[in-house]
Structure formats: structure tokens, C-alpha cells
Amino acid sequence: MRCGNVFARVAAYLILSGMALVFLIPVAMMVSGSLKPDHLVLPEAGRLVKLLPTEPTLENYRDVFARVPFARYMVNSIFITGTIVSCGLLVNSLAGYALSRLHWRGRKAVLTGVIALIILPLEAIAVPLFYEVTLFGWRNTYLVQIVPFIANAFSVYLFYTFFLELPEELEEAARIDGARPIRIFFSIVAPNSQPVFAAVAILTFLTQWGSFLWPLMVTHSESVRPLPLGIALFYTLPPLQWGDIFAFGVMMVLPMLMVFLLFQRWFVQGVASTGMKG
Amino acid sequence: MAAVEFRNVSKRFADGTEAVRNLNLAIHDGELVALVGPSGCGKSTVLRLLAGLEEPSAGEILLDGKVVNRIGPRQRNIAMVFQNYALYPHMTVRDNLAFPLRMRRTPRKIVARKIADIAGILNLRELLDRRPGQLSGGQKQRVAMGRALVRNPSVFLLDEPLSNLDAKLRAQIRADISSLQKRLARTTLYVTHDQVEAMTLGDRIAVMERGELHQVGTPAELYRRPRSIFVARFIGNPGMNIFPASVLRDKDGTWRLRTGHWDIPLPPEKLPRGGSPEALQSIRAGLRPESFGPTPGDGTVPCAVRATATEFLGHETLVYFHIPGAQGSTPLAARLPGHMTLPEPAAELHIHPSALYLFGGDGILLR
Amino acid sequence: MATPSKRTNSPVLDGLRREQDTPTAWIFALPALAGLIFFVLAPFLLALFLSFTNLRLGSPLPLEFTGLRQYARIFADAAFLRALQNNTVFALMVVPVQTALALGLALLINQPLRGMVVFRTLFFTPVIFPLSLVSVIWILIFAPGPDGTLNSLLQWLTLGAWEPRDFLHDPRLALPAITVTSIWQGVGFQMVILLAALQSIPAELYEAARVDGARKRQQFVHITLPALKNPLTFVILVTTILAFRLFDQVQIMTRGGPNHATTTVMYEAVNAAFGSQQVARGAAMTVVFFTIVLTLTLVQRRIAGQERATS
Ligand SMILES: Nc1ncnc2c1ncn2[C@@H]1O[C@H](COP(=O)(O)OP(=O)(O)O)[C@@H](O)[C@H]1O
Ligand SMILES: [Mg+2]
């Protein structure tokens, strides 16, 4: 589809630029707010020209560290999300491989079960899960924020469909060379399946990094809470200091943003792959 | 080294395709058997059955006299070269070669030595640190061979190993494999759809069609005494000319073969034993393109031909012709030495009656 | 040379016969299966079970089967009914707007013009923002009084005629405000899915259509839309389910208020179980929630299945 005339092209750029503003301004407000003195953020929120802070200050960033255990939240978030992602990749890819490639009694039944579980979102089971982990005595720990989210039906399914389409010849060559399934998986299949590992890693990361409902339910001490609870706490913790909140926000999102810009191609492919399976 | 035997082996896939039907084939220790047949006839399935990648639906597969039906590829110590080579793309050539050795817990030093040896034999020294993606087709092929040979397999399987190469490279690697096989004398099953490869490499050739084995024999046996029209056509380039004909007894008691304007006296040793006179009325006769001569010789019979095309190949000429007065649309081929031009469409070629083959209605050689 | 018989391990593990991989496969699948059974299937069954009881954490009353009483109670509860209504209204606003916007952006970005990757990056960026952060930013945008971003923008646009509103505390505006926030955060996700679908349409199809004399509009109707059918139904389903999962924004921006104007099923369920320790009541609400999700999924399957059958 070639845009025949200049007019259409200009119109396209105009619409896109307008939309870009809608997407940019809230982000810019956050960044600019984080550099303003607290008392100026709200009064200047309605003035576009004030997006450039008149007297930028890093005071808010200092305040964040003074008022809440920001580093703790960050470490918790990285630890929780990182563990879920890495363990999830291992566990779910192994299951996906068993379902797509190995011959075993019960394969069909397990596959059907896994696909059925995809439609159960966390929210549908949050309350009984909350009750269950209470029985286990797991509340207010890292464990309770990590273990329930390692196994993921949708991840298993993504791995399963990817492995199904992988040509089988390499694995056959490896079998003839004398490798056992576990070896075949780690030495041959996994190194040639980077796209699906990246996609699953990123989808897991996106859902877990912003996780709010569950940690809110099962934790109460700052020592194990992740970043999203930190910012909510900040918002509810008087006095309401907008500059601090936004400094917190910038620091919270900056690592993600950098990872995103570096691996953008993988992010986009990862997200797109979910739609392809629909 | 090992001997291989298929006993009444059949393979039916889950979707009902019967890829191999009642296969009986023995491969002797150190022998190279070439398995030929058109694409889709079940050759790869036979290889995969032997490798342990597929399990036979019926029958037994024996390695050195032991039934291995229920033993996986890992324990069979068989090596295989895949049609697309199946080199591990994320590993260097060295690691590809080392993989089968590592899987067998070979000590590091021995691995290094074996890789050096095989790299020497196959001329891979400069390639050891490259990845498969950086290799040409011929180089990949050599690495695949190396990976198969490096661990002293008891049986060596190759699935159309040359089909992805261009003609020149194919001839060269064919020669390499031939000399390698002479030196190493491995028990080998070599699958190909190319009869030239089969003829040049095989100690014996097994011809398959639609899951069934037609004939097994040395290249000379298959060329001289093809058991069926299928084999006769498959072996030779071009394959044997096959045309409908009748065998009749003349008033003077001699047997003659007639088709169109051709009328060839049959020598007694060509006469089919038994067989009803009616059956003899419609048989199929075969003549190799090599059997035609441009000039009369000792005991030859002249045959009128209506030439339709000639192909000059340098050292010889292929002449395509019809038998005057006969039905049938496919032309016959004759290979004549040197540069021949047929002066006119109607001419004569000469054959010796002993070169004739007679096949029954079922396509099986009568005598 | 190692002969096969010297190996000690059993050939059963080698994966030859139909079921020979069984032990290995179970080892492979077990960790994931155990996780799914313990933390998805079991809680779900537990939810079903608990919803028929009177369980309350820390209550001295003995556990009792109360049959459908929890369901009777929640469906008699005005707040819960309001939550159901809010979720529905929210879905009816979010789904069409967000899908149309995602489709429009995808179509614009799919043009062979320079700089499209930059726009794609921009529109996708909010997806990586946690909803909690997005909610806080938009609280500022919706701030009451003439200083609030949206209020001052609307005043500027209407040349001062706009009366500043307190969006998040106005019963009629709070839910739409949450809707806008959600669309801003989520539209990039849908856009990327649709864009991938657009880019997987072979260019020859359009060329063939042009040769056949099809106009732009006809090309869109006969080539683009059919190719987008599956991703579109998928996107619509996901957006609808997400609409019923609405929680984070409500918790941070309005806490369900004012006067239940923005409460949602999940908000009520969490408050029941977590706020007032009424686990059984919360469980019943999540069962209702699951029933809605299941119904939506089945309807989508049905539609997709019919389309597959007709095409
Ligand atoms: N896994 C399979 N499932 C079903 N049919 C198969 C399978 N593998 C091969 N076939 C069929 O078996 C027949 C023989 O195939 P193959 O052995 O690959 O032939 P060849 O190697 O001689 O070309 C073909 O008809 C093929 O389609
Ligand atoms: Mg084949």
C-alpha cells in the first residue's frame, strides 16, 4: 500500500504526532514532576510550558530514599521477578517439550488440562489461593510471591506450539549420536529456540513486574514488598508529595525502559506471538 | 563392524500409510548396500527403522544376529548422515564432531585426537572453528560425514547425502565416498534415488518401489538380469526400452517376436518356459539402448526405425525413435557411438536377438 | 568400541516405543504440573468448595455448608450488583474504543513511511509501565480544580467555558476516567498484535488485488479485514477479560468510590476476603467472575469456530 499523494502522508504524520503527544505528555509530566519541588507539581500540572522545570532539583530523589526503603523495594522486585522468570523458563519449557515431543501415557490428557487452565487468571483464584498460602503459613514471604507463579499454563502452551513447529531432524541426529532426552533438550533444542524463550521471558516479566493485587493481599512488611506497592504506599502516605511520588516512578520504570529499548524487537515479537496463537 | 538383517519388516504409520511392506534384506559385514527407488518409495523409512528412529509394525531387525526392535538409537551405535545434514547450527564444526563422542563419555584427549584424525581424512582442518552457517554445501556434507564416522559406528547410514549438491561436486564427493569406503570397509546402507550413485558405490543394490523390495544384487546382476520391468527401467541411463510385443511360433517351428514391422527370431534360450500361447500373444519386450548398433554385425537382425530426435553428447549419440507400424507413443532410445546423424527419418538399426528381455503381463522377467 | 549390550541404562528410557518416554516425560512435566495443580487447579476447586461454606478467617463459628447462601447474599448486595454493572459498562467502553484505536494506530504505522518504528516504540511504551504507576500519573492529570491537567486543557479548548470538575470523585465521571487511563496503558499491546497480523499479509495479495482493479477501500474489506479476523477476535476477547479483571486502577485511583461508582467484582472480592476476612464470600465472587470469563471465552471460540467453518 503506497501512500499515493503527499496530502495523505502529511495527514498520517499529523495524526500520529498528535497521538504521540497523548502518549508522551503523561510520561513527560512524570519526569518533569520528579525534578520539581513538591509544592509546584500540582499547581503547574495544567501548564504545558511548565513541563520544563524552572528550577530543577534532585531533592525528590533524595527524599525517596529517606522516606521509604526504595532500594529494598527494587531488590525485592528484581529478586521476585527474576526468580519467577528464570524458574518459569526452565519449568514451563520442559513441560512444553514433553508435551510436544515425547511419547508418553497421559500426554493428551495433560495437554487438554493445561490448555483448559489458560483461561483461569490469577484474579479468579486469588481468594482461595490466599487462603491456601495462609494455611501453608507462607504469608509475608518471598516464597508466596514467587512459587505460585513459576508454573504458567500459557507459557507451557507457547513453548508447546513452538517446539511442535521445530524441525525434528536435529533432535533425531542427537538421538543417533547417543544423547538422552534431557541432554537433547538442553544442548540441542534450547539453544535453537531463542525466540520463544525471549517471548515467554518478556511476557512473564511484564505481568510480574507490575504485580499489585497479589503482593497487596499476602504481604504486610516493607522488607518483602515489591515496587508497585511502594508507589501505592507513597500515594497514600501523608503528606502527599507529588515530586517524591514521581521520582519514585521514574526510578521504578527506568530499568524497565532501558531493557525495553535495548530488546525492543524481542518485546514486540513476544507480544505479537501471543496474538498469533489466538 | 556388524551385519544387518531385516526379517519380514513392515512399517505402517499412524495415518495408515504403509511405507515398507514385508522387507527381507541382509547386509553383510563391511558391505555397502545402495538402496534405490523413486522418491516416496520408503527408502528413508528403512533407514530410520534401522537407526531406531522408527519402530517396525511387524518383523524383526537384527544387528549382529541380535534383535534390536526394542532398542533405541542410543544403544545401537549406528551413525547417520541426514539429507539436510542436520548439523547443530549453534555449535562449531569441532563441537559438532565432538558431540557423539562426548555423549559416549570419551576422555577429552581421545576426543581431540579423533577429531584431528577425522579432520585430516575429510580435509576439515581449516573449518573446525566455523559454524555450519558459514560453510558451503560441500563442506557441510563433509562435516556431516565426519560426525558420523568419528565414533566408529557399527553401521553407517546415509540418506541421499549428495542430493543437495550441484552435479560437479556430487561426482567428486561420490568418488571420495567410494575411496573412503574401500579404505574403511564399513557396513553401510546408502539411500539414493540416483541409479548412477547406486551403481558406482554399491557392492550390492537394493531396488524398492512403493514400499516393496524388487530385487537385490550386484550392479552387474541388476543390469544383466533385472527381475522386473521396474528394475530394468530404473537401472541404466537411459533405462531399458520397454515395448509391447507378441511371441509367435512360425510355420517352420521357430519362435519369433513381433511388434509393428519388427520381426525378430528368438534364440532358444530366450524362449519362455511354460506359459500359455495366449499369454505369449501379449508380452512386453525390453532392449537396452546400448544394444542397438548402427551397422550389421555377427548374427544381428536389422530393425526399421522412424527417428524423431537425436541428442549428440560428444562421445555418443542418443537416437529416439518409434517402431514403424507399432502403437505406443513413448519413443525408444538407442545409444550409438560417436557422432551419428540419421540421414532420414526412416533408417535401420541392428540388434542381436540375445539382447532381448521378455517380461510377462505382471512385469516380471519371463526368462 | 562400545557395544550396545555393555550399556547399563535401560532402553526404556531411550524413547523408542510409543510409551517409552513415559518416565522421562513425567520428570520433564512434573514441576510445571505440580505448580499448576497446587496453585491454579487446587485454588479453583477450593474456590468452588469454599463458596458453599461460611468460612471466615478468625471466626469462632464452625465451618458449615451453607449451600447457595453466599451466592444469594452477594446477588442481594447492592455493592456487588453495582460492581457487575460497572465491569460491564467499563467493558462496553474500553473494548470498542481500545480496539478501534489499536487498529487505527496499527494501520497508520503499517504504512511504508519513515519513522514508523519510533511511533510504534512510543505507543508501546506505556505497556511496560506498571498499572500502579500509571494510575498515580493519571491521578494528577485528573486532579480537581483549574490546575488539573485535563481541566486546564479543557478550559483552554473551550476558551474558559469549561467548569473544572473533580473527575475521580464525580460519580458520573470516575469510571470514564479510569477507562481513559486503562486505554492509555493497554492500547499499545493490542496495536502490536494487530500490527504483526497486518505485516504477515503477503504483499502479493495487495498487488494481485490492484491488478484486479480493486480500490483501497475494497482492498481493505477483502484482504485486510479477513486477515485480521482472528487477531481481532483474540484482541477483543483479551480486552474483555481484562475489563472484568479491573482492580489496580480502582484500588489506587478511587478505592471503588465515590459511593461504589467505580467498584468492580475483583475489588469487592478482594475486600470481602482480605478486608473483612470473609473468605467464603470472596470465593463466591471469584466463582462468579470465573463464570463470566469462561462464558466470554466459549462465546469467542464459538464465533471463531463458525468463521473457520464458513471460510
Ligand atoms: N511420519 C510419517 N507419517 C506418515 N507417513 C509418512 C511418515 N514418514 C513417511 N511417510 C510416508 O511414507 C512413504 C515413504 O516415505 P519415505 O521413506 O520418506 O520415502 P523416500 O525416502 O523413499 O522418499 C511416503 O509416502 C511418505 O509420505
Ligand atoms: Mg527420503
In short:
The complex is a heterotrimer of chains A (278), B (367) and C (311). Chain B is 26% helix and 31% strand. Chain B has helices at residues 43-51, 73-76, 93-103, 108-122, 137-149, 167-184, 195-201, 219-224, 229-234, 277-281, and strands spanning 4-12, 18-27, 32-36, 58-63, 66-67, 78-81, 155-159, 188-192, 204-209, 212-217, 241-249, 255-259, 262-265, 283-287, 301-312, 316-322, 332-337, 346-351, 357-359.
Provide an overview of this structure:
The complex is a heterotrimer of chains A (278), B (367) and C (311). In chain A, 74% of the residues lie in helices and 0% in strands. Chain A contains 15 helices and no strands. The model of chain A has no long low-confidence stretch (mean pLDDT 86). Chain B is of the alpha+beta class. Chain B contains ten helices and 19 strands. In chain B, a hairpin with a 2-residue loop joins strand 4 and strand 5. Chain B starts with a strand and ends in an 8-residue tail after the last strand. In chain B, the strands form four sheets. In chain B, strands 6-7-8-3-9-10 form a six-stranded mixed sheet, with helices on both faces. Chain B has a five-stranded antiparallel sheet with strand order 13-12-11-14-19. In chain B, helix 3 (93-103) crosses helix 4 (108-122) and helix 3 runs parallel beside helix 5 (137-149). Chain B has helices at 43-51, 73-76, 93-103, 108-122, 137-149, 167-184, 195-201, 219-224, 229-234, 277-281, and strands at 4-12, 18-27, 32-36, 58-63, 66-67, 78-81, 155-159, 188-192, 204-209, 212-217, 241-249, 255-259, 262-265, 283-287, 301-312, 316-322, 332-337, 346-351, 357-359. Chain C is 68% helix and 0% strand. Chain C has helices at 22-50, 69-76, 78-109, 116-124, 131-141, 149-157, 174-199, 203-211, 216-245, 248-254, 265-275, 279-310. In chain C, helix 7 (174-199) packs across helix 9 (216-245). Chain C is globular, with a radius of gyration of 26 Å. The termini of chain C are far apart. The model of chain C is unreliable at 1-18 (pLDDT under 50). The interface between B and C is medium-sized, with 16 and 14 residues. The complex binds adenosine-5'-diphosphate (ADP) and magnesium ion (MG).
